[in-house]
Design goal:
- The chain is of the alpha+beta class.
- The protein has 24 helices and 17 strands.
- It folds into four domains: 141 residues, Sandwich (Immunoglobulin-like), CATH 2.60.40.1250; 231 residues, no CATH class; 57 residues; 129 residues, 3-Layer(aba) Sandwich (Glutaredoxin).
Length: 597
């Protein structure tokens, strides 16, 4: 490649001396071929293949290196990996002469873009007479099959970039948007951010059933009130965040609010254990009963609506790509109506499993008797677990894991883990086996906490030394959280500019379940770790929700956490590569590999 560089420098000198017009004149005087004559490029589609051919004039050669590029230029820029013919060596450089024939399978393109597209072929070549041409690019327009509604939906449900989802809101029909966001909601219902709401709703239904079995209609309506309240809350939060830039969910993640909410769960748990009953004064219950057609026992639907609101604000504060996309669309366009409808429909989709819980509770809940006591106690344990889940966002990791260990050990003792074998018969032996599992896991957590473990899933991580990705490197120890806080835009950009590698920036916070998944599942994965060696990794903790934290999110047009952004080797921000929400290890590894090219 050394000879080529020398020739390119000579060409650049000619250009700077004579200008491009003078260069063209020089070509004519010296009888050099024009670029269009030296390199004749064709590209035609035949069946399922695009056949390309570069015809190279005599005494001219094209270099076989990264200067020969095949790429999609529109609707998005994508480099294509193609199978080139064999090249040969001239003066230490690998070159092509005569012609370069490359077939590109159409599926390699349609799997990446839909609809019409532009194919670009770029090359650099030199004449044997001592002149090198400037980079030569030829573009070709191709008609692509229009993606159907379900093809678009399938593609977008895998999309992790909020900006691309925002583009959909601005370009597609209202029907398509409503259908798309409802499907988004159904998929989000399977994420950990929604799981904690299931025992909350179930415990409400159980507590409202009293000594009897709730009717299907009442259980369903209770669930509907909870889900609609949750959906309205998500909608209002998203619209406010889009129009004003205020993150209400983040504001609700302060220690006082979380402590009060955790205390509510503990109080509800002890009520389910039978220590007391939670009920409004008789006069209040009478008024609520009349207002809700005698359906509002023990707090009624007003209390259910409040729990739905608080659950959306406090229990499930994670951000997914659709939510971020809708907020970004509202922020850019000011169209709160369309963005709000999209958020509401998505939230109702998230609530479908909760509605099924209501129907199931009314139909399958056991009749009054001993079983009802057991069901109430199970939900009581779940409430205690949710209280620990809330407190875990503000307590030290060791204290949180010890609380979890005590909950599992206490549950095991209550289930009769040490009862004599002869005292249990039939199915009760399986119940005792489950108690043994709880006891072993609880003890494991206790030992793990004392050893300094910070993971519920890997209590013995300090003994196995599993690697965890941290700021700027890969290490076996979890760094102090303080080192990830206090970032400003200026501090981040200073670290980015100091890097000689592409940069990954992970925005997270303690209250985010998906953030914990990324930290414990995605980042430690061996494939991800291998790719991260090519990057500088910066972790930013936004738990404090400081002015600098808010400015960071505003600067990069992000909403909440988790969000992962990227900077290229040239230190330039790459918004089209950003990811929101939990990302599977294999997907993240492939994403890193593409950026590192």
């Amino acid at each position: 490649m050394g000879n080529f560089i020398k020739k390119l420098l000579i060409s650049s000198l000619l250009l700077s001396t004579f200008g491009f017009g003078g260069f063209q004149s020089a070509l004519k005087k010296q009888k050099f071929l024009q670029p269009e004559e030296a390199f004749q490029i064709t590209a035609v589609q035949k069946d399922d293949v695009i056949k390309t051919k570069i015809t190279i004039a005599d005494h001219i050669h094209v270099y076989d290196d990264d200067t020969l590029k095949y790429r999609i230029a529109s609707p998005s820029k994508i480099d294509l990996k193609v199978k080139r013919p064999p090249s040969h060596e001239v003066d230490g450089d690998k070159v092509f002469e005569k012609e370069i024939v490359v077939d590109i399978p159409l599926k390699d393109i349609t799997s990446k873009v839909s609809g019409d597209f532009i194919l670009e072929i770029e090359l650099l070549g030199c004449s044997d007479k001592g002149i090198c041409y400037q980079p030569f690019v030829k573009s070709f327009n191709f008609k692509g099959a229009k993606a159907g509604v379900f093809d678009k939906i399938s593609s977008l449900t895998k999309e992790g970039n909020t900006a691309k989802i925002a583009d959909v809101l601005s370009s597609e029909s209202s029907f398509f948007i409503i259908l798309l966001f409802f499907i988004f909601g159904l998929l989000l219902a399977l994420t950990p951010c929604v799981f904690p709401m299931i025992p909350i709703l179930s415990s409400i239904i159980v507590s409202q059933s009293g000594e009897g079995k709730p009717s299907i209609a009442k259980a369903f309506f209770t669930s509907l009130v909870y889900v609609v309240s949750m959906a309205l809350t998500y909608t209002v939060v998203g619209v406010v965040a889009g129009l004003l830039g205020a993150d209400i969910q983040a504001a609700m993640q302060n220690p006082w609010v979380l402590s009060v909410f955790a205390a509510m769960f503990v109080a509800l748990a002890y009520s389910l254990f039978g220590y007391y009953e939670i009920g409004l004064p008789a006069s209040w219950q009478s008024k609520i009963s009349k207002a809700s057609d005698e359906a509002g026992q023990k707090g009624g639907f007003a209390g259910t609506a409040i729990m739905g609101l608080l659950s959306a604000l406090i229990v499930g504060p994670c951000v997914a790509p659709p939510l971020g996309g809708a907020v970004l669309f509202i922020s850019h366009t000011g169209d709160a109506l369309l963005g709000g409808v999209a958020l509401f429909v998505m939230s109702m989709g998230m609530g479908i499993p909760l509605l099924l819980v209501g129907i199931g509770a009314g139909k399958f809940m056991p009749k009054p008797g001993g079983w009802m006591t057991v069901v109430s106690q199970v939900f009581g344990v779940m409430m205690l677990g949710l209280a620990i889940f809330m407190l875990g966002r503000i307590l030290p990791d060791m204290v949180t894991i010890i609380l979890w260990s005590l909950l599992f050990i206490g549950s095991a003792l209550y289930m009769g883990v040490f009862n004599a074998s002869t005292a249990t018969q039939g199915a009760k032996k399986l119940f005792q086996l489950l108690a043994v599992v709880f006891m072993l896991y609880g003890v494991s957590l206790f030992i793990g906490a004392l050893s300094g473990s910070t993971s519920m899933f890997k209590p013995f991580e300090k003994f196995t030394q599993v690697g965890v990705a941290t700021s700027g490197t890969v290490t076996t120890n979890k760094e102090d959280k303080a080192s990830h806080r206090g970032y400003s835009v200026a501090r981040l950009m200073k670290e980015v500019k100091a890097s000689d590698k592409p940069v990954v920036v992970d925005f997270g916070k303690d209250s985010c379940t998906a953030c914990a998944e990324l930290e414990h599942i995605t980042f430690p994965d061996p494939k991800v770790q291998e790719q991260l060696k090519n990057f500088t990794f910066i972790k930013i903790d936004l738990t404090e929700n400081s002015d600098d934290d808010k400015e960071l999110l505003k600067h990069f047009e992000l909403f909440g956490t988790p969000n992962i952004i990227f900077f290229g080797k040239d230190n330039k921000y790459m918004p089209e590569k950003s990811l929101t929400g939990f990302v599977k290890p294999e997907v993240f590894a492939a994403h890193l590999k593409e950026i590192a090219k």
